[in-house]
Design brief:
Chain lengths: 286, 232, 376
Amino acid sequence: MLFLQLLVDGLVSGCAIGLVAVSFSLYYSTTRVFHVAHAGIYTLGGYLAWYGAMQGIPFAIACALAVAGAAFAGAVIQRFLYDELERREATPLVMLIASLGALAVLQNGVAMLFTPNILQFPNPWRTRMLDLGIASVSYAQVLVAASGLAAFGALMWMSRRTLLGRRIRAVASNPFLAEITRLGPRSVYLAVMAIASAMAALSGIMVGLDQAMQPYTGVLVLLTATIAVIAGGIGSLTGAFVVAVALSVLQNVALILMPGRWSIAATFALFVVFILVKPEGLFRKR
Amino acid sequence: MTLEVRKLTAGYRNKIVITDVSFELAPGSIMAFFGHNGAGKSTTLKTILGALSPVEGEVWLDGERIDRLPIPERIARGIRYLPDSRGVFPDLTVEENLDVVARMNAADSGARIAVADVLSMLPLLEARRGSYAGTMSGGQQQMLAFGLALLGSPRCILLEEPSVGLQPDLVEMLFGEIRRICAKHAISAILVEHKIASAMAISDHVLIMNNGAVVFDGPPAKARESNFWEFF
Amino acid sequence: MPLRQLRSLAAAVAAAVVSALPGTLAHAQGQPEILIGALLPLTGPAAPVGLEQQQGVQFAVDRANAAGGIRGRKVKAIFEDSQAKPDVALLSFNRLADLENVPVIITAFSSVTLAIAPLATRKKVVLINPAAQSNKLENASPYLFNTIPLVKDETSAITNYLVNSLHKKTAAIVYENVAAGIDGRDDFKKAFEKLGGKVVAEEPVEFGLTNYRPTLLKVAAAKPDVAFIVITQGHPTFVEQAAQVPGFPVGAGTTFVNPLCCYAGSAGWYQSAIKSGIPPELEKEFNTRFGTKSMGFFAREYFNSTNVALKAIDHLLGKGQALNGENLRAAIFEVKKFGSDIANITFDKTNTAARGVDIQQYTADSRKILATEEAK
């Protein structure tokens, strides 16, 4: 069944994009910085894990190390770039340009260290197939979906149930009050950046495992993710995730109705119409 | 004295707003702080809070000089600030608002007021525990903002126009709570307020500013007799 | 300053001045060197390819010099970097043509070659293109010689084989949504339909993306006899994902899809390849010289094409004519047939070489040649 297989593939890819969307949304709604370099962190995560796997490190450990490495890289960007610029009261435009600069450094750094070629993970089990009855998916696709849903669930739980989660929501909704009630906005920003980077890296690793990696693919993923963030309603994590999955499914399933060269254009046209009709997004916050 | 402001001169980038402001605040006393817009009330409060640095002068809290400390250090020592709006975290429930502030301020030596105390002092909040702060009325939000300021070990609360947007009966109720709680816990307060009669009713002390300088400093009874009305 | 130091300083200055002079002056006593230019992507993303091409050119020059040069004159290759970018290439071309006065430049990449072709016509500099295959190169300049058949020639060879020998009647096209992929799609469609075949699906994949699944699923659902593939990157991933799609048809393509070979997932697929060979002792010599494991496609083609230029220069000097682009162009047509152990290249009235095309079939770990379509 072509339709079901496309649907399932769309759901799987959607989980990966959803993770990027949710983490981007988390960071943006907390700091109001349009962190384009997030795409570079996504890429960096995949390459770090690949490097670990090539050294013969078991995949799970390579993955954990890469996630930690990406979180650290994100924290460095926060501490030594965004924090410094904010201290100097930089405008949002300056922050965006700085972020683009960080993106260029990350992408080209990755290309220099690991070659600009398309790279694949060496683990042979990743292409094995699992028959779900209505469709079949590779083991790697199972990991993409499972890690995406698990990380999203963990983030939602963290956001609702833990002190850090409450601090993050508090800082996002009223930074001045957070400062004068000693919630420590700076350390919250740092933590949010580390968490968001870890999530983006996880997505980059799993997609790399399932497909392959290139230094410059992250930007396209981030573009789709950003659209999901806006259409889902800025500040709504659930909205970002749900719309990302929906977009991905739509892009896949649209192929039944039209030639592939139109499907991306059609999806984005639909998005433009959607924004015109409902500019506040699907899951607007109060 | 709880709070001592000595010869304070402060302002923004290239503009001095207040000059030579001095006053003292006894433990548990409430000071009504009047003056027309631009007189320098907010600048004074923000300098005490630490959002602005003084050009000259000193701020002392319980015998410790605090005017060089960063904001969080002053909060830790008992300064509290209630902004005229947005004094709550709208995306958190009442309970989460109180919980996150209480836990982040729990380490202060001798934290005296916990979430449970605030809820019992302000029963209105108890009734709305699960509501998102952003969905509540202005009065309820102001009550919650006051509750947040009480958490930990407050010594001196700076209130900026707490009555803005509130119905008159709510203003009386809020001011009544402020008076009662401050007296009970020996907390001093500075009340910047346009509702002069309501503010005077709960104050022990009145300070009037004009053009960045203090023009009256004395008890309410004396203030009523004075000719400070000419400044409004 | 002591006299000895002064003297050695003067000597050093003199040496620097002499070495800075143009080659013709420095070597005034002997015969002047023969200079040939090579405009290759030596830095940037295409650098791995460019460096292999450079080795091919240098190998031919070294062998010519080891054999005593061309009619007693040493050969020297001057390399300029194009970064595979047309704008950079234009500046580099001018340096080679105006400063070094080379009669011939060996090029790389369709976009670069097309950009400098008009200048080559105007300045009468011969261009030799050993590897780029855009159809537009056919008539880009009377001074441009393509030593490799263009995409349409190769496509028509594999299409003939698919229709006439394998009796494929329906085809789906998977193409990369960029100029090369779109041209390849159009060439195949034209050739396939001309032979009576029917194209049942045309599906693009986006350059830079590695998720081919939706496209592959749609191709499989169209149930064609063969899938014609025009992609220039991501080949292993493509094979991997094609293998995961039940009912995906046998694949076929041109030199573009060379890296699809030799995976379990692509066993049985077909590919055309420009016919070329390499004697083992020559490859061994190359490997010793450059420390490589094999002499790749680009090294071979650039080596062979450099030899084409050198042979034409030899012919020209033999006739006692002046070594310039205009005479060299005529000499190439006079020599006409450039045979070697690597390939037989013929310039018969056109500037594009007629060469044999091999039809290969993949196995899980190698490729075998099924047929050869000889040059017409």
